[in-house]
Structures are given as C-alpha cells and as structure tokens.
Amino acid sequence: MKNVTDSFVSLGHWPSAGSFGFNTDILATNPINLSVVIGVLIFFGKGVLSDLLDNRKQRILNTIRNSEELRGRAVEQLEKAQARLRKVEMEADQFRVNGYSEIEREKFNLINSTSKTLEQLENYKNETIQFEQQRAINQVRQRIFQQALQGALGTLNSCLNNELHLRTINANIGMFGAMKEITD
C-alpha cells in the first residue's frame, strides 16, 4: 500500500529535465493504468454495454415469448390431436361393434343358407331316390307284363289252332261292330 501512495506522492517529484521515460516498476504503474482503463471503459462503455445488455435482454425476452407462443400452439395442436384420437377410437369401437354384429349376422345368414341348401339337397336326394324307385318299379312291371304277355301269347299260340283262332277273331270283330252301332 505504501508503494501506491508513494507513486501518487511522487508525481510532483518528476524530474523536469525534459526527459521522457518509462516507469518500469510494475507494482506502481499497473494499478494506476488499470484504474484509468477501467474508468474510461466505464465512462465510455457504459452506454454501449447497456445497449448490448438491453439488446440481449430483448432477444431473450423475444425468444421466451416465441417459445411460449410455440408451446401454446403445440398444446393446442396436442389437444386437437387428442380430440381426434378420441373420436377415431370411438369410431373404431363403433366399427368393431358393428363389425362383430355384422359378422354374427353374416354367420347366422350363412348357417341359414347352408341349412336351406342342405335341406334342398336332401329333398332333391329323396326325390331322386323316389324317381329311381318308381322307374325301377315301372321297369319291373314292364318286364313282368312283357313276360306275362309272352307267356299268355305262348299259351294261346300253343292252345289255339287255326279254326279257334279264326272264331276268336270273328267274335272280336262282331263285338267291335256292336260297339260301333251303340256309339252311333
């Protein structure tokens, strides 16, 4: 501390011989130089520093304001998206319920249709069986009738001679003639 006061006191004791020199005593000159530089910086830089800090403060406030606006818009979009999600989930549930009921309805219709088809096939099968039975019965009847007719013809041919044959034909012609007269 003594050096600092000595440096201020020694200001009046500079040699006045017209020489100019540098004080190389670092401890004595640095605090003075620093105080002068800091004083000049404070005096002249106060406005610049204040402007820089104000600009920085405005930029920070603008950034905060923009961030708040973006956050507000993001919250709004999130709420809209959540509302849309709820709506879509409700529609999906509705489709799911409708889909299940539609599936059950289609299943019921398919079962009914299949049952009707099976019933129709069963009826067709029974009709086919009846038709085939009737056809077989008719074929058997025809064969029996043909065999009986052949047997009767064989019996008649073996029993009839020409004379009996001619008398039977004449009797039949007479019967046809009598029937014709009755109908006229």
Mean pLDDT: 82
Q: Ends: how far apart?
A: 176 Å
Oligomer type: single chain
List the secondary-structure elements in sequence, H or E. HHH
Q: Assign the structural class, choosing from mainly alpha, mainly beta, alpha/beta, alpha+beta, or little secondary structure.
A: mainly alpha
- Rounded to an integer in angstroms, the radius of gyration calculated over CA atoms is 67 Å
Task: Write structural notes for this entry.
- By secondary structure, this protein is an all-alpha fold.
- The protein has one domain (32-176).
- 89% of the residues lie in helices and 0% in strands.
- The protein contains three helices and no strands.
- It is rod-shaped.
- Residues 7-16 have low confidence and may be disordered.
Summarize the topology:
Elements: H1 2-9, H2 26-159, H3 162-183
Helix pairs in contact: 1-2
Structure, briefly:
This protein is mainly α and 184 residues long.
Question: Which structural traits does this protein have?
Answer:
184 residues; mainly alpha; 3 helices; 89% helix; rod-shaped
